[in-house]
Every structure is written in C-alpha cells, then in structure tokens.
Amino acid sequence: MHKQIITDRFLLSRKSTPATKDDLPSALDLRDTFNYINIQNINRESECVGLAANQIGVFKTILVLANEKKKAEIIINPVIIKHSQEMIDSTEGCMSLPGTQTVKRYPMIKVEYVDEHFKKRTKTFRNIQALVVQHEMDHFAGKLI
C-alpha cells in the first residue's frame, strides 16, 4: 500500500536502524509508494528514481531505486564496500524537500545488501544509480540535502 511522503525536517533527520525480516511489509510499502509516485508523475518532467524508508515514516535502512530496467528494486541494509577514488558534483532533488542542491558523490560504488527475499547480494552501481543509492543512504543517517 502506498504511503504519504514525509516532509517534516525534524522527522527526516532521525537516524535509521537496520531492517529485519519483520520489516518486509514496510519494504513492500516503500516499493508501492515508489511505483505510485511514478505512475502519478507519468506526464511530468521528473520521476522518482529512489526513495528511503524514512521518507514514509519507517526508520529502517531500506531503500528502493529504479534498476537498469526502470523497475523498482528493494535494497535492505546496504553497506558501501568500495567506491571510485574521484568524486563528482551531483545536483540532486528530493521527494521530501523542495529545490535542489549540489553535493559531492562517488560515480561508482560497490554495495553489499540483502534483497526483498533476504538473500545476500553484492552489486556495483554506476552513474545515476550510484548517486541515488548514496542520496538514500544519507537519509538513513538523517542527513538532508
């Protein structure tokens, strides 16, 4: 079931804790919300490319992003284990906050996580996907752009 996007800066600044199998319904709600936002925005210029669980009021380390096939992919308890040496400027917006801001990001990251079946995965993200994962992981730390 899709949820409302949280816009309260105080709530968004709360840190998230690791997710467990008991949090799977929240992960599915996050994916439903991501898909709902993109269906609603079908004729608009921008689309939602990522969403963190705290943006729907769930303070767990769960994110959803558009994978290579533009399908919503659930990523639970991600940890960056490797990244490119260089950083780039990334101009980012957020579904929870107005406007954009330029931040420094790695254009390549390698991440360990569990999927929606709680199967351990390792994946290398590049370009926009790498930027999205880092943005959503900032949400876990309560960091706002």
Shape: globular
By CATH, the superfamily comes out as: Peptide deformylase
Output the number of helix runs.
3
Most strands sheet: 5 strands, antiparallel
What's the structural blueprint in terms of helices and strands?
Elements: H1 9-12, H2 24-40, E1 50-52, E2 62-66, E3 72-83, E4 88-93, E5 100-105, E6 108-114, E7 120-126, H3 127-140
Antiparallel strand pairs: 1-2, 2-3, 3-6, 4-5, 6-7
How would you describe this protein?
This protein is an alpha+beta fold and 145 residues long. The protein has a single domain (9-140), classed as Peptide Deformylase (Alpha-Beta Complex), CATH 3.90.45. Helix content is 24%, strand content 32%. It has three helices and seven strands. It starts with 8 loop residues before the first helix and ends in a 5-residue tail after the last helix.
Features:
Peptide Deformylase; five-stranded antiparallel sheet; globular; alpha+beta; 32% strand; 3 helices; 145 residues
Summarize, please.
By secondary structure, the protein is α+β, with helices and mostly antiparallel strands.
